[in-house]
Amino acid sequence: MGTERNSDGWDRACTIALAACPSVEPTTLIRLVDRLGGAHAVWASSAEQWLAVCRLRPATVWALDRWRQGHDPATVEERLMHRDIRCVVRGDDDYPDALLELAQPPLVLFTKGRMHAFRRTVSIVGTRRMSAYGQEAARWIAETLAAGGIHIVSGLAEGIDAVAHRGALAVRGGTTAVLGCGVNLCYPSHHRRLYDEILASGGLIVSEYAPDVPVAKHRFPWRNRLIAALSPKLVLIQAGERSGALHTVDAALDLGRDVYVVPGPITASLHRGSNRLLQQGAQVLLDPTEFLADCGLDHAELSRSGIPERWRDLYDSMVEAKLPGQLARALGQPVGRVYEGLLELELAGMVARNPDGTYRRTGTATHGGRSVVDR
Questions:
Q1: What's the total number of domains in the chain?
Q2: Which residues, at least 6 apart from 371, have a Cβ–Cβ distance to it below 8 Å?
């Protein structure tokens, strides 16, 4: 079935097709779409019209025009799906509302893995050149928060980011990695195993950059604003005075997010940036269990619930008995992934299969020592 050229579906297809061009920065595309009145208008306009509304480098204009000539917007998304890359467009139901608070929200998010609602999330950032103290603090905080039902957001970078992701995975919690390159690329390359583990655990890899876009220094600050925006609270583990993590903190403060900082030794230069933030009034994080209480969560209750965080949405969807296919459609997940979750929950005694093939909760999951009984 074709997409009508004057429909919202056509504008969405054009948005994906333009955003998938690896030669155009997201900021450039946002300006073009805003000034020409939509992605469909950008696609239909001439190169001369692009130049009339935006100051563009000739190489950018040439690359975008050549890309347009070689692609049909109606097929770009399908081709990306064959590469296991999903497109979430501004205006889609599963586009994170938190990103709309940005001055320039991404037009498209390219994702691999499981998209989720970003309801209970905390972003954790810090220096690439972490100390042993910073490493231990990041691990303790990430593990405690993830075990308490918090989804951890970070950037897959060397140092604190990687420890935060691994901490969440260690307790079978959820985590999202926001990249400053194409979502199909792993940077740094030696984090490939971590990249794969995030996906295998039901986590998410996300980028605003088109697939195959390589790493570049100027892309990290732009990426950092997404890490800041996706969570209502940001934790800075360790940062020197010139750490890139401080850019993420600035973005979070500009958005009105709560910023927590782990204090460090006053003699350590790698803590000088984070300690300076405490001096300026940032909230101090001394104990992650207290932080959970600030989030309105109780670590002891949530950690005893027995429901793995990656299957929480699946379990919550089973208010009444449903077939696996119904659950897959409701969650927007492959049926095979749903069966994987149902099997794990069934083996744990939390769900049971009915004679008609539907699955139901058993009521054995507990919260604070009390059984969760279906009504």
A1: 3
A2: 363, 364, 365
